[in-house]
Amino acid sequence: MNAWLWAAAAMLAALIPCGITAFRGDDADRLIGLEMGALVVILELVLLTEGIHRPSFYDLPLTLAILCLGGGLVFVRFLQRWL
Amino acid sequence: MNIEPTHHPLITGTLLALAVAVTILCAIGVCVTRDPYQRLHFSAPVVSFGIAFIGIAVWIEDHDPQARIKIILIALVLMFMNSILTYATARAVRIRDAGHWEVRPHEPIQFVGKAGEAKQRQIEQEDQA
User: Fold this and answer.
1) CA A17 to chain centre
2) Average pLDDT, chain B
3) Cβ separation B30–A36 shorter than 8 A
4) Number of domains forming the structure of chain A
5) More confident position, B54 or B121
6) What residues of A are in contact with residue B51 (Cβ under 8 Å)?
């Protein structure tokens, strides 16, 4: 275990409030909890990548960050028009 | 190319601890605030301070150009993504709640600042007239 992996383990705690937000409240609150959870997971993947010394794995958080934008906008569109 | 990482455990550990603290505090903030518009504010510190602390730590610790370039790319994508997504979400929540995006006369919205107070006075004068 190095500092990066300890930080990644501690960062998991941030997913709990995001999960609580995403599982209760109305649709808007749930969407915001999901977006915050995605941010936490991206940072988590960065910490894990650096912790295991595999720079090529940086593609994972980079891809997730790009996909979160598209996915988030689709959810936002649904929230605005149909939900 | 074999690039040996440097070790600055105190600096790296401090930066990582700050990043984790900011992220956890913002996640708790998302959970405990009541209003969706308030909740939306808590993603900004994560994509500014959180990713900045981690990025600086990567630059200090890792001399691999691939890691350095990609952490900058991730930070830029996150900042770009968060600004667009926060605006789009706030707009969607507003349209969902009010049925429209623009502010209409006599809508119960609290105006703030000098320009807002002037706008409030103008509306009240129009009402009296």
Assistant:
1) 12
2) 86
3) yes
4) 1
5) B54
6) 43, 46
CB contact under 8 A, A68 and B81: yes
- Residues of chain B in contact with residue A73, where contact means CB-CB under 8 angstroms, are 84-85, 88
Supply the pLDDT for residue A83.
65
- Give me the residue label for tokens 């040996």: B4
Which pLDDT score, from 0 to 100, does residue A37 have? 94
In contact, A5 and A48? CB cutoff 8 Å: yes
The average pLDDT across A38-66 equals 93
CB within 8 Å: A39 and B85: no
Residue A53 pLDDT class (50, 70, 90 cuts): confident
Interchain contact A23–B (C-beta under 8 A): no
Alpha carbon distance B39, A67 (integer Å): 22
Q: How far apart are the first and last CA of chain B?
A: 78
Rounded to 5 degrees, what are φ and ψ at B63? -95, 5
- The ranges assigned to domains in chain B are 9-98, 104-129
Residue-range definition of the domain harbouring residue A53: 3-81
Whether residue B31 and residue A17 make contact (CB cut-off 8 A), yes or no, is yes
